[in-house]
Amino acid sequence: MKKAISLCILCIITTLRVIAQTGDIKVIVTADNNPVEDVVVTISSQNVKGQKTTDTKGVATFHQLLTGRYAITASKAGFGAKTAYATVVSGKTQQVNIQFAIVLEELKAVTISEKELPIRKDKRRVPKTVQEDMVRGRAIEYEAMPAAADAMYAPSPMPRMAYRERNTESYKKVPENDFMSVRANPLSTMSVDVDRASYANVRRFINQGQMPPADAIRVEEMINYFNYQYPQPEGDNPLAIVTELTNCPWNDKHKLLHIGMQARTIPTDNLPPSNLVFLVDVSGSMNQENKLPLVKSSLKMLTSKLRAQDRISIVVYAGSAGLVLPATAGNQKGIINAALQRLQAGGSTAGGAGIKLAYSIAQENYIRGGNNRVILATDGDYNVGVSGDNEMEELITKERQKGIYLTCLGYGMGNYKDSKMEVLADKGNGNYAYIDSKQEAEKTLVREFGGTIFTLAKDVKSQIEFNPAYVQSYRLVGYENRLLNEEDFTDDKKDAGDMGSGHSVTIIYEIIPTGVNSADARNVRPLKYQQRAAYPTILDYDAGNELATIKFRYKKPNGNTSKEITHLIYNNTTDIRHASENARFASSVAMFGLLLKNSAYKGSSNYNKVLALARNSAGYDEEGYRTEFIELVKKVSKPEEVAMNKWYEEEE
């Protein structure tokens, strides 16, 4: 009897412990501020999946979910599907608001029969046509037009048609890196890049049921969206370097060289004081739920991380630019948030005037030895003000040289100017992120606050020299717009990328080993006069077991002279199946990017391979970002769920 009672008590205690580690998620689905009933809501994490339907109030609640990050997808005919993310906290209910925009799932031509035609003696018989606005879901009927004469016959019935508002998103077209011969090009030099905008933008397309445009896919930004477990730097170096050589999962004749860089993580309390200027686009194009309202939410999140020693100013621009909030201490959060909340959208976009004013305010409040930065939040759709992009870029470059950097946060869809945003961030010694949800804002501005806002090392460059004894050709995966000339590596006047506190960067080279017969190899015939004396033939050159030597150069945030780090890479290959989680997961993301681009170098890549590698290397996924990646791959692996896009603008 005692044993039975003890067992019963133990079961109750265990149940209570499990309940104590759970929480709820309440999903509210609306369209035009009205609740949407009978929406299928699916919730999933790495180990949990459930489904419910919204009630008459548009609500679906999931109870006693284990703590962790969940993907929530809401779908209904006539609205499409939309995905959001939430983290369950023990004992609390997380509310997730999903707002639908009405769309049409199918575009069908519907003819109106002769019987339906209105007939009047003073008008010719014509059918009504309906133009359905895909964004707002409203139908506009066009009445019959007066006839020129009674003898005119009715025209053929007209179809019911649906139109999309013209999409003017723009992406710069950049050719993919090709394989290079080590004999002709033994050095590969690049600017280190920590931008991650491309992945969030790609995710937005896929979650909307569309394939992203090829030019929107920057493979390196997809890889670097994720955090990798690289070791922290030792000694005085701000950067640590890790390398790994594996076989290539999409070409069994090739190998992949993985290079990881980790910037030192500095606790937020130890960061230098910040002088930040929020530069907010409040033009008419920002008057959408996923633009200005999301901007305000994002900047409120960033404000939550600020301290008394930090200073915040707010500048807005539309038809003209203005100062909304003068420099205010970071602990005055109520004042800052109230100023943000008052922002409203309307007018044309004088982006250049806004940037000039923002830099002027930043200069007035400049903190010597501090973090001086303009944070631009916009869809990038400048159309009034500055005479051209070149003038704006020159201004940003000059201010960068004064120690004022630029962070670009991109928002929205339909008229989003990715090509402009990326260039501005590059010129401003800053970084660039695409914010498609509150969850992404939290990741960029809260969880990765130090990396996004504080520069630890600037003008970071990489140069690798391959040993022709082991490598005949190589290809840098991604980074097409980050390539530098050989001589730029030691030129301290040449601008390059920056790394923030805690940032990691992953670089992948696909290499063709010496002696391997590959169609991708770029063989160069020996030259008569320029033959390298060091190794008359490739196989005569010997440097032991060294595959390559990689060097990095960087400057301190306020420095002008670069320092160099050298790292030797040895020719020791690990089977990808037994490689580190870092290498396996990065390879899966790279392969996914190649497939989305329909790359000429995708080899035998397929979505099953991507899924197998990703699932096998998800590892400890506290925030759920790797789980989310796996869900995206699943969606794209079903062609019937996505459509190809051909509507965006290319920029040469």
Please, could you describe this protein's structure?
The protein has 652 residues and is of the alpha/beta class. The chain folds into four domains: 16-100, Carboxypeptidase-like, regulatory domain (Immunoglobulin-like, Sandwich), CATH 2.60.40; 109-159, no CATH class; 171-266 and 457-647, no CATH class; 275-442, Rossmann fold, CATH 3.40.50. It is built from 13 helices and 30 strands. The strands form seven sheets. The chain has a six-stranded mixed β-sheet with strand order 13-24-26-16-15-29. It has a six-stranded mixed β-sheet with strand order 19-18-17-20-21-22, sandwiched between helices. Strands 14, 23, 25, 27 and 28 form a five-stranded antiparallel β-sheet that branches. It is globular, with a radius of gyration of 28 Å.
Q: What features would you highlight for this structure?
A:
6-stranded mixed β-sheet; 652 residues; globular; disordered C terminus
Output mean pLDDT: 77
Secondary structure class reads alpha/beta
How helix-rich are the residues, as a percent range? 10-25%
Q: How are the strands of the largest sheet arranged?
A: 13-24-26-16-15-29
Percent of residues in beta strands: 25-35%
Task: Describe what is shown at a glance.
With 652 residues, this protein is of the alpha/beta class. The chain is globular.
Reconstruct the topology from this structure:
Elements: H1 2-20, E1 22-31, E2 34-35, E3 40-44, E4 49-53, E5 59-66, E6 68-76, E7 80-88, E8 93-100, E9 129-133, E10 139-142, E11 161-163, E12 170-172, E13 180-181, E14 187-191, H2 197-207, H3 219-224, E15 239-248, E16 251-263, E17 274-281, H4 292-303, E18 311-317, E19 321-329, H5 333-341, H6 351-364, E20 371-378, H7 389-401, E21 404-410, H8 418-427, E22 432-434, H9 438-447, H10 449-453, E23 455-466, E24 471-476, E25 497-500, E26 504-513, E27 546-555, E28 563-570, E29 573-574, H11 581-597, H12 607-617, H13 625-636, E30 649-651
Parallel strand pairs: 1-8, 9-11, 12-30, 15-29, 17-18, 17-20, 20-21, 21-22
Antiparallel strand pairs: 1-2, 1-5, 3-4, 3-6, 6-7, 9-10, 13-24, 14-23, 15-16, 16-26, 18-19, 23-25, 23-27, 24-26, 27-28
Helix pairs in contact: 4-5, 4-9, 6-7, 7-8, 11-12, 12-13
